[in-house]
Write a structure and sequence with these properties.
Elements (H helix, E strand, L loop, with lengths): L1 H25 L7 H14 L2 E5 L8 E4 L5 H9 L4 E6 H4 L4 H6 L4 E3 L6 H14 L3 E4 L17 H9 L2 E7 L6 E2 L4 E2 L3 E6 L3 E2 L7 H19 L5
Parallel strand pairs: 1-9, 2-5, 2-6, 3-4, 3-5
Antiparallel strand pairs: 6-9, 6-10, 7-8
Helix pairs in contact: 1-2, 2-3, 6-7
């Protein structure tokens, strides 16, 4: 059984790399965001995962905050949202050959965790993308979480949302690492639950709204885990 899961992971990973090549080859031929959307759908259809959506995507949302467990997470969001998403990711990923090109071409936003000027650059780049009608999309944990518990949220999301008084929509992805886990070389097809929570306007007078949001998202995750046998 493990051998089959490893072979499935190899197949899925190959498909993902092909999809990244597809982004590069089609980016200048298609209006944004279609190169990335087509690439994401190519992955979704080729590796046979589907989604079960709860709640409604807010058409007026300007920022998405999403929990992060798997490399599938970006592809999931790109297939369920028609919006032009601008992903915020650590700068080191932009420096990786090939993969960095896939992120820099669509004008995703790099962030340097140790840089004193990083937040200023983040604010400037975010404003530029918002002016282009794009949605700032972040994994506020900063990296993949494990063991069903979300990591503390980084403050960058709050800085941007507060500065521009953005309408924020939290989104909970359920157990995506159960289906694709690069550390275990594991993949299995499945139906992934996506929960759109209620959106809100960022209130900079509330210093704890981001940490409180993590608690709310964790509760949504825990409740879904407890009430839905398919997650076990």
């Amino acid at each position: 059984m493990k051998i089959f899961a490893h072979l499935s992971w190899l197949y899925a990973t190959t498909i993902i790399f092909i999809s990244l090549t597809l982004v590069i080859l089609t980016y200048w031929l298609l209006p944004r965001p279609y190169a990335r959307k087509i690439s994401a759908w190519f992955v979704r259809l080729s590796i046979f995962f589907s989604t079960d959506i709860q709640g409604v995507e807010d058409p007026a949302a300007q920022m998405y905050l999403i929990n992060h467990q798997s490399d599938l997470d970006i592809g999931i969001m790109e297939t369920i949202s028609k919006k032009d998403l601008s992903w915020v990711a650590k700068k080191e990923l932009f420096d990786v050959p090939f993969f960095g090109l896939v992120m820099s071409m669509p004008e995703d936003i790099p962030i340097e965790r140790q840089s004193k000027t990083s937040l200023l650059k983040l604010l400037k780049n975010s404003k530029d993308r918002l002016n282009k009608g794009r949605v700032i999309t972040m994994f506020p944990e900063g990296t993949r979480s494990r063991n069903f518990k979300m990591l503390p949220f980084k403050n960058g999301a709050k800085v941007v949302a507060d500065k521009y008084q953005l309408k924020v929509q939290p989104i909970v992805l359920m157990q995506t690492a159960k289906y694709y886990d690069i550390k275990r070389f594991y993949y299995k097809p499945g139906r992934i639950k996506v929960i759109f929570m209620d959106s809100f306007i960022a209130d900079k007078s509330d210093e704890k709204w981001l940490s409180n949001l993590r608690i709310k998202m964790q509760k949504v995750y825990d409740d879904e885990l407890s009430n839905n046998l398919s997650h076990r």
